[in-house]
């Protein structure tokens, strides 16, 4: 796992802050090189235990995430999905942080992207994530109060139009047309073109970086900040985009294994749904990235442009 350690005077100050935050002596801390929406730190305690501290930078959404974290972890494990143990949650303004916090046990192993170096490992990753994708649909969502914007075609279309309008001057006419077309198509066909595609539990950020593998087994599915009710193909669209865009050499092997394990058909309606869900999700992430400054926003606008040009 690629991470940056905290050293020097600033590191000492941060260790003290983290110790107060988790109410335990922290002697080491690393910032993983993934994620941008929240602040994640892997801490080592004086007794050797390792925890993952997630400071949720959107106070309103973060409060809801922290409030359901424990129940969600239990529901996931009940569906046969290896979610990390939730150590503690702080739904209000956590001391020394000022934002909601979720602390989970660290799960050792290999992050998914490290398996995209060979066809054998890429196939394994696809198979493992496809099997988990199938199980996610069985998670009991009653009482979890998950976000429902993606469960309503009308609401998602309205939000997506506003997001596109907000960046209209920063994207090409080709991209605007592609995204506008995806919005119109989603509103028109919604779930009707796909069998059994009612809104269900989805991870929301179903990326290789959010799975941990040990001895050819998936031992951890992490980072549920974007969990929601949505078309179950949303997670598949995320996995497909990330593998083909960032790991093209191994994408086909991984994707074929994923769809086989997940039971996803290779037909025209499914391919169309995957494309429009991919575009609408990246559009949403442009909005998230904008809160982190112009540089992050422009990076995600470029990713949206690239995706709009892909089939």
Could you say what the CATH topology of the largest domain is called?
Aminoglycoside 3'-phosphotransferase, Chain: A, domain 2
**Structural class of the helices, strands and pairings?**
alpha+beta
What is the radius of gyration? 19 Å
Low-pLDDT runs of 5+ residues are none
Distance between the termini: 32 Å
Spell out the CATH superfamily of the largest domain.
Aminoglycoside phosphotransferase (APH), C-terminal lobe
Write the layout of secondary structure elements.
Blueprint lengths: L2 E3 L2 H15 L3 E7 L6 E7 L4 E6 L3 H20 L7 E5 L10 E5 L4 E2 L7 H18 L16 H14 L6 H17 L10 E3 L8 E4 L2 E5 L6 E3 L2 H14 L1 H15 L5 H23 L3 H15 L3
Antiparallel strand pairs: 1-2, 2-3, 3-4, 4-6, 5-6, 7-9, 8-11, 9-10
How does this model look, in words?
The structure is a single chain. The chain is of the alpha+beta class and 311 residues long. It has two domains: 103 residues, 2-Layer Sandwich (Phosphorylase Kinase, domain 1), CATH 3.30.200; 199 residues, Aminoglycoside 3'-phosphotransferase, Chain: A, domain 2. The chain has nine helices and eleven strands. The strands form three sheets. Strands 1-2-3-4-6-5 form a six-stranded antiparallel beta sheet. A three-stranded antiparallel beta sheet has the order 7-9-10, covered by helices on one side. Strand 3 and strand 4 form a beta hairpin. Helix 4 packs antiparallel against helix 5, helix 5 packs across helix 8 and helix 8 runs antiparallel to helix 9. The longest helix has 23 residues. The two termini are 32 Å apart. The model has no long low-confidence stretch (mean pLDDT 92).
